[in-house]
Amino acid sequence: ANLDKPMKGATSIIRILVVGMACLPAACTDKDSCFSYSLENGLKGEIRLEHIHDSLSVLRHFIDGTEVSEWELPYPVYRFDCGDLTSDGTPEIAVGVIKPTRYFPHSEKRLFLFKLYKGRLIRPLWMGSRLARPLVDFHILRDSVPARICTTERVSDDTLVQALYRQEGFGLVFERDLPNP
């Protein structure tokens, strides 16, 4: 066989593969974070946090590979997590940002919660300025409905404590401190 000439049909197959790959949603990279979930109608939802640079990230919501909403976060982001915090069957988005606030002018870790309005549009649910104690980190516990937020907070003697919160109405409701491991 002459390898200098493509086989008949090979060029068409390569074109199909290249065009098909261009239509696929971009996969998450090491610097991006993803959360996938299933919708009632069998479609696949995906929420991504894309880091543009140190102080700009973008939340993106996809349904079956098509972007339906985005929200810019012009702050450094230290954590991203998702879970059904409101028991409505749709995940909420939790993002940890580092920023000052009007009443707390020093840059500190904050917790922002977003909802998927009408199951599609990323909208703020709660933009937390502060918890009872300075926030160190958090994650969502998805083993219950509604899911809970487990935080690590710094107490006055500089030790760390874990606390459990649930989202209710406007903001978070403290449930209890967790025993140290």
What share of the residues lie within helices?
Answer: under 10%
Overall body shape: globular
Helix vs. strand class: mainly beta
Instruction: Summarize the main sheet.
Output: 4 strands, antiparallel
SSE string: HEEEEEEEEEEEE
Number of strands: 12
Mean pLDDT: 85
Radius of gyration over alpha carbons?
21 Å
Low-confidence stretches: 1-27
Strand content: over 45%
- Euclidean distance between termini CA atoms: 68 Å
DSSP summary: helix tally: 1
Strand order of the largest sheet: 1-2-3-4
What assembly state would you assign to the polypeptide chains in this entry?
Answer: single chain
Structural features, described:
A hairpin with a 2-residue loop joins strand 2 (44-53) and strand 3. The protein has one helix at 10-23; strands at 33-38, 44-53, 56-63, 66-73, 77-83, 92-99, 108-117, 121-127, 135-141, 148-154, 160-167, 172-178. The chain is built from 1 helix and 12 strands. The chain is mainly β. Residues 1-27 have low confidence and may be disordered.
Describe the SSE topology.
Layout (H helix, E strand, L loop, with lengths): L9 H14 L9 E6 L5 E10 L2 E8 L2 E8 L3 E7 L8 E8 L8 E10 L3 E7 L7 E7 L6 E7 L5 E8 L4 E7 L3
Antiparallel strand pairs: 1-2, 2-3, 3-4, 5-6, 6-7, 7-8, 9-10, 10-11, 11-12
How would you concisely characterize the structure shown here?
This protein is 8% helix and 51% strand. It contains one helix and twelve strands, in the order H-E-E-E-E-E-E-E-E-E-E-E-E.
